[in-house]
Amino acid sequence: MIRDEDGALTGYVYIDLNTKDYGGFVASANNLFHQKLALPPGYTYKWSGEYEFELRAKERLQMILPVVFCVIFLLLYMVFHSVAEAAVLIFPTIYALTGGLILQKILGYNFSVAVWVGYIALFGIAVETGVVMVVYFARSIGPSPGKRGSVAP
């Protein structure tokens, strides 16, 4: 199909992939294009469609993930009134991420927006489990004198 886009004639080539790894396909296709294709002056090519959506989602998630960690840390600090306890409770998210990445690699899943949303939910569950353990531990040994809401060493 040939159309006009931004004042320039544009030709579209539609590709239906058998894979969900759009980034891998585009990377290998770009390598092949650079090796075998010599574009005349004034000609360019650009990837669009699902690949473009994937790039936008990755950019957005690069902003969202640090915000998620900061919000989790802030909420933990507000609950326990201790930076040390909040930091200790943030560590299970690192282990959860490691386990998730290993399982994702074993099962052969690619990164997608749904996978990242699943990781964010996993971080919440890991922190929630840590909070339950800390609260149970605090109740079993009793609070230390003078430190309200803190866990005794």
Task: Report what the structure shows.
This protein has 153 residues and is mainly α. Helix content is 65%, strand content 5%. The protein has a two-stranded antiparallel sheet. The mean pLDDT is 81.
Derived from helix and strand composition plus strand pairing, the structural class reads mainly alpha
Cα(first) to Cα(last) distance is: 70 Å
Which residues sit in consecutive blocks of at least 5 with pLDDT less than 50?
none
Quaternary structure type:
single chain
Order of helices and strands: EEHHHH
Largest sheet: 2 strands, antiparallel
- Mean of residue pLDDT values: 81
Placed side by side, the strands forming the largest sheet appear as: 1-2
C-alpha Rg, in Å?
24 Å
Q: Strand share of the residues?
A: 5-15%
Helix content: 55-70%
Total E-strand runs: 2
What general outline do the C-alpha atoms trace? elongated
